[in-house]
């Protein structure tokens, strides 16, 4: 993992950091490090408390739930909208999920103990983090419904859109194997769904790289879960605080 020191203004690349009261954000600056996160890097697991929490800027992190026999599925996604490790910040003794990088990129890394202390002593910080935590719970609930009742085609569309929402382009890296692991389905099902989308001219897929060609039609193809999650996130999205 490579560490990069950059100006405070770069913190605006993460929506949660940008929403912090100015006086708090300034205090955090000297404690933040910009780090490069690599694909499949495990930021924390269910067996140990993390030393740091991560505020992604260009990376995307999957919160994965794993069964005893090793099967897994993604229950929530964290990108430039939030923080990886919110359960620890709110006092949990252990996490219910693993946090795994599914799209390499950058994130701010900050001491988990420092942020927990900030939550305890700043109402502004607590309010921002609590609203984000509620949006994560909503995402987990919506994902559970989607995985139970909707087709693989619809689930894949939802997951592609969810990833794009946390990137600054219409492209993302995702192999069929990774998509199947995230959705908790067979790879063959994902391959068939991706083939349909490509044949319809919605995406272009090559060697694990996906380019979305028609986002509007992709949104039409997905289920109502995507729109519901977006509506809830916008309702709870932290509004920039005034110091």
TrEMBL record:
The keyword Nucleotide-binding does not apply. Transmembrane segments: none annotated. SMART domains: HTH_CRP. Keywords: DNA-binding, Transcription, Transcription regulation. Residues 150-216 form the HTH crp-type domain. The keyword DNA-binding applies. GO terms for cellular component: cytosol. Pfam families: cNMP_binding, HTH_Crp_2. InterPro entries: cNMP-bd_dom, cNMP-bd_dom_sf, Env_Response_Regulators, HTH_CRP, RmlC-like_jellyroll, WH-like_DNA-bd_sf, WH_DNA-bd_sf. GO terms for molecular function: DNA binding; DNA-binding transcription factor activity. PANTHER family: CRP FAMILY TRANSCRIPTIONAL REGULATORY PROTEIN, HTH-TYPE TRANSCRIPTIONAL REGULATOR ARCR. This is Crp/Fnr family transcriptional regulator. It comes from Rhodoferax saidenbachensis.
């Amino acid at each position: 993992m490579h560490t990069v020191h950059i100006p405070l203004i770069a913190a605006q690349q993460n929506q949660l950091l940008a929403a912090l009261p100015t006086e708090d954000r300034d205090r955090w600056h000297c404690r933040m490090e910009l780090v490069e996160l690599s694909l499949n890097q495990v930021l924390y697991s269910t067996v140990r408390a993390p030393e740091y929490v991560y505020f992604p800027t260009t990376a995307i992190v999957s919160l994965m739930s794993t069964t005893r026999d090793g099967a897994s599925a993604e229950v929530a996604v964290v990108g430039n909208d939030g923080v990886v490790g919110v359960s620890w910040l709110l006092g949990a003794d252990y996490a219910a999920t693993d946090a795994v990088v599914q799209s390499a990129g950058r994130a701010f890394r900050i001491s988990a103990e420092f942020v927990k202390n900030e939550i305890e002593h700043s109402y502004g910080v607590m309010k921002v983090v609590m609203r984000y935590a509620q949006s994560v719970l909503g995402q987990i609930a919506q994902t559970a419904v989607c995985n139970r009742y909707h087709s693989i085609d619809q689930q894949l569309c939802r997951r592609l859109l969810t990833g794009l929402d946390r990137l600054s382009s219409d492209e993302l890296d995702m192999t069929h194997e990774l998509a199947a692991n995230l959705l908790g389905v067979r790879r063959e099902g994902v391959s068939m769904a991706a083939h349909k989308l490509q044949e319809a001219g919605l995406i272009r897929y090559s060697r694990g790289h996906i380019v979305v060609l028609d986002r509007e039609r992709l949104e039409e193809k997905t289920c109502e879960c995507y729109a519901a999650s977006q509506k809830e996130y916008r309702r709870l999205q932290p509004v920039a605080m005034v110091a």
